[in-house]
Amino acid sequence: MKRAPTERDLRKPPDFTVFFTVLILAGFGLIMVFSASYITSLESRGDAFFFLRRQVFWVILGLVGMITTANFSYWKWRKMVPALLILNFLLLLVVYIPGVGMEINEARRWIALGGFTIQPSEFSKLALVLFTAAFLSKKNLNMENFWSSSFIPLAMTGGTFLLILDQPDLGTALALAAVVGIIIFAAGIPFKQLMYLIFTSLPVFVYLTLNEPYRMRRIFSFLDPWADPLDTGYHIIQSLYALGPGGLFGVGLGRSRQKLYYLPEPQNDFIFAIIGEELGFLGAVTIMLLFFILFWRGFKTSLMAPDAFGSLLAAGITAMVAVQALINIGVVTGSIPITGINLPFISAGGSSLFFTMCGMGILMNISRYNR
């Protein structure tokens, strides 16, 4: 008598398109982080390779995390969701502990661990995606009943949203809310409920914008950055000054002028502007094409996943990267108001790179069981 097929029997090779696309983006990120930072790093820290070394460390750590999660059955994450959710709220509260939480530029978003810092909000994205996918994929869940279905993930997201907002980090909080909203949409929320959520969210967004004067200034600077070119419109103007001279082929790798103290922290949130300046329109389009390939493979995995949990989890992880990339590119090109969101896999940073690569590993594991 033939035995029933085991999980190992059903497992196939992972989606190597995702794997190699992430490697290309991360490798390209190493080149651009060094190009964008080596001069300012040499002058301010006496070490031209400071940011490059840190980025290499996090890429290696992220690669280990991606390979580990790619070989870790995604069904096991479901059992770990309660612990991950508790850890999410604990880490967001730890930033307020003196001596542990780290404050930079009047923002308390980091936890200091030796010579490194961890940003809990980056962990929150992955934890909330796992929780929402696990909750909405439960058997016999009636999506028509808002209070027993969509309300619970929205409540957990709301609590996380408020803690991240208080750091303050409105950009990350809004990105998190958007990702959870996409998962709820993919789970089949009724159209009336979806419209109700959208229209009730608008007054909240307006209040959050009007409540802080600096957010209002950002809105007005987005509409007309040249009205205040030395303050609120400075970043957008310098970013456009970087993209403009790039032309079709760019000014050449390492030859950016805007990175010479014109564009603040060019290796972080505005690294896409340096890509556009040094590598031109073709370089920028190549990066967007790589992200498109990643989104396509991610949503394909979502459609072909063997169960609802895998489908929603793949959709959430893909949306997590897509939303962040779209916001970053939108800010750099002056298409949306400025918010502090980095470019996945490319911008300098540790927590975002590590947890995003772990998310890609989970996506690859789901692809191993695709129909």
Number of helices: 13
Q: How many strands, what sense, and barrel or not for the largest sheet?
A: 3 strands, antiparallel
Total tally of structural domains: 1
Described by the principal axes of the CA atoms, the overall outline is globular
The low-confidence runs, each spanning 5 or more residues with pLDDT under 50, are 1-5
* Secondary structure category: mainly alpha
Strand content: under 5%
Main β-sheet, spatial strand arrangement: 1-2-3
Mean pLDDT: 87
Radius of gyration: 21 Å
User: Helix share of residues?
Assistant: 55-70%
Layout of SSEs?
Elements: H1 7-10, H2 16-45, H3 50-70, H4 75-94, E1 101-104, E2 107-113, E3 116-118, H5 120-136, H6 151-165, H7 170-186, H8 191-211, H9 213-223, H10 234-246, H11 271-304, H12 308-332, H13 351-367
Helix pairs in contact: 2-3, 2-11, 2-13, 3-13, 4-5, 4-6, 5-6, 5-7, 5-12, 5-13, 6-7, 7-12, 8-9, 10-11, 11-12, 11-13, 12-13
Written account of the structure:
The chain is mainly α and about 375 residues long. The protein has one domain. About 65% of the residues lie in helices and about 5% in strands. The protein contains 13 helices and 3 strands. Strands 1-2-3 form a 3-stranded antiparallel sheet. A hairpin with a 2-residue loop joins strand 1 and strand 2. Helix 4 runs antiparallel to helix 5 and helix 12 packs antiparallel against helix 13. The longest helix has about 35 residues. The radius of gyration is 21 Å and the shape is globular. The N terminus is likely disordered.
